[in-house]
Amino acid sequence: MRMSMGLQARQMQVQKLAPRMIQSMEILQLPMLALQERIEQEMNENPLLEQQDADPTDPESLEDDRPSADTRSEDEKELVVNDDHDNQEDFERLQNMVNDLPSTFDDSFRRSSNRVQEDSDRRHDLMANAQSRPESLNDFLLHQLSELDIDDRIELLAERIISTLDARDGGYLRTPIADMLPAGHTDEDLQLAETALKVVQSLEPAGIAARDLSECLLNQLSPTAPFHDEMEILIKSHLVDLAENRLPQIAKKTGFTLEHIQVLKEELHTLNPKPGAAFMETYVPNVTPDIILERNEDGNYEVRLDDDRVPTLYISEYYRRRLQDPNSTSEEREFIKQKISSAQWLIDSIEQRRSTLTKVAEAIVEHQKRFLDEGPEAIEPLKMQQIADKVGVHVTTVSRAVDDKWIQTPRGILPLKRFFVGGTQTEGGEDVAWDTIRLKLQDLIDKEDKSDPYSDEQLVEELKKSGMTVARRTVTKYRKRMTIPSSRQRRDWTLVKK
Question: How far apart, in whole angstroms, are the C-alpha atoms of residue 352 and residue 81?
Fold first, then answer.
């Protein structure tokens, strides 16, 4: 085989996204708060961008006074410098603009005093409204430990034990005691560590620093608790049988009646299997709806984009003037041309986002009117491709439009993705959403005979009676997702006929 090196010309078609298209998709995907941050970042980087903020206290300023692509004057349309000609058309348009502008050029971006004050006020509000950091599990335990009068060595070991506890894991001790001691430790050191562990386990919340579930529950069991001895027997020897609802086996081994075991089981449920979880920091997202859905006087739904806080952007007239000024240097012109192009792309991308998001939301609302009127049980199957076909865009555009976007409806604030659900068909050929099937499944289980609950096969048959043909594995999958126990675990043995 002959091998050689050389140059070869080959013609081929390659599809690439233009930078302008990429920016448009990025802007479309941003939720409201992220869009505001992006605009602020662009304004800091591009001195040609200026904004006109709406005053939320002035009703007239809340009206959408942004010029649309169709209503903008000729001077405001597409001020993108084209290097393919001598820019004569751009210069002619620029000459029609306001002439009352500074005659000197300053290439540094200087914010106005009002802008500086606004930024200062915004930072002050953020600091004033910031949530204080909640006390962690480790801090809570260390605070209690510091109030105890104990040996310094034991206190040091107790602090080491506390440092290994994690609220996300329920506050269990997962590290063996011996691993916390230095190599070559003595039996006395190990005994001190065990004593330190007992000290930590005596702190609040009860059950903390347990090595397993059994120890956790036993440490919470008060000596004066009702049925203390019987509950201790169940915790030490029958937790697995309790979890699997094998009450007859427990009755056979312990001699307790089924009714008494049921009482003990309910008492055990008052104990906390994860005592440290109460200190886990829960993240509650700050949801700001991008879309407002309201009924008009005719009773029809109207979609309105809630972007009043998004400033109206325009290109600085000062720099427009500098571009057509014959005294401007070539470096100034090149700088301004680049910044004008970047600014115009951003303005157009925001306008495109507004248009696309509105059209997508209107199409979604039109398809899911029954869901909005009647509730979750009336939601209909909907795929993003259906909305894409209706709006006339690619399905990826719909995906970006609904990503991390929220809509305020008469039924509360919902994510736009909530309206997209899969489904199946009834025997009559009617489409049924999976959400509807899940609601029906929950209803069947709520109303079943607890002495003889439905198996998954029986649930399939019951759903079929309602016209919903679903496979058994699908019923099992959704039952587990809904954290519904199996039929054996749902059985109430006190109702079983003897």
Answer: 20
Q: List pLDDT tens digits, range 201-245.
A: 999 999 999 999 999 999 999 888 889 999 999 999 999 999 898
Q: Is 304 helix (H, G, I), strand (E, B) or coil?
A: strand
| 273 and 147 in a common domain | yes
pLDDT digits (tens, 9 = 90+) for 108-129: 444 455 545 555 555 555 455 4
Count CB-CB contacts under 10 A for residue 438.
17
User: Is 363 a domain residue?
Assistant: no
Residue at a domain's end among 279, 299, 328: 279
**Does residue 236 belong to any structural domain of this protein?**
yes
Cis bond leading into 205, ω under 30°? Answer: yes
**Domain range for residue 494?**
422-498
pLDDT at 8 exceeding the cut of 90: no
Facing residues of 301 across strands? 295
88: alpha, beta or left, given left = phi > 0 and alpha = psi -120 to 50?
A: alpha
Q: How many domains does the chain have?
A: 3
- Lowest-confidence pick of 76-85, 127-136, 305-314: 76-85
